[in-house]
Write a structure and sequence with these properties.
InterPro entries: NTF2-like_dom_sf. The chain is α+β, with helices and mostly antiparallel strands. The protein has one domain: Nuclear Transport Factor 2, Chain: A, CATH 3.10.450.50. Helix content is 34%, strand content 39%. The longest helix is centred in the middle third of the chain and has 17 residues.
Length: 145
């Protein structure tokens, strides 16, 4: 079974990669194929290179919003099998002054591969709505690319 410490280590590495806008480091935490699912999008990527490219495409959006650092709170974890764990995470998005910009919830399915946890499925629960609201509150026109 997966311990909370193992999950926290995984999330610490993921938030460090996200905070550094390091797509390759983030993609290394994913198994393949990796699937991202939300109300407005579903997609699976069959390689870590594709995952890194997809992650990197979102970085200008986050940077326009003033994101400087990402934190997390592990809200729940449930072992589904000896190798597969479901987690519910709240990501916290901070600006350069360490002020909280917004947060967003995700569910992930993690699988242990060769003693290492990898994400295989991410379900975005409310992140896009909150980031879109943040952009509107800051007067950022998201259609301007």
């Amino acid at each position: 079974m997966t311990t909370r410490d193992e999950i926290e280590s995984f999330l610490d590495e993921y938030q460090a990669a996200l905070s550094a806008f390091d797509a390759e480091r983030s993609a290394a935490l994913w198994g393949t194929p990796g699937t991202i699912l939300s109300d407005g999008f579903v997609g699976s990527l069959s390689s870590r290179a594709e995952m890194a490219q997809g992650l990197a495409q979102s970085y200008p959006f986050y940077q326009r919003l003033g994101l400087s650092r990402v934190g997390h709170t592990l809200l729940e974890h449930v072992d589904l099998t000896p190798l597969i764990t479901r987690i519910h995470v709240r990501w916290h998005f901070y600006d350069e002054n360490e002020d909280l910009l917004t947060d967003g919830d995700y569910e992930y399915l993690l699988r242990r591969d060769d003693e290492t946890l990898h994400a295989y499925v991410a379900v975005a629960i409310d992140e896009m709505e909150k980031l879109t609201k943040l952009a509107a509150d800051k007067g950022i026109d998201l259609s301007a690319g």
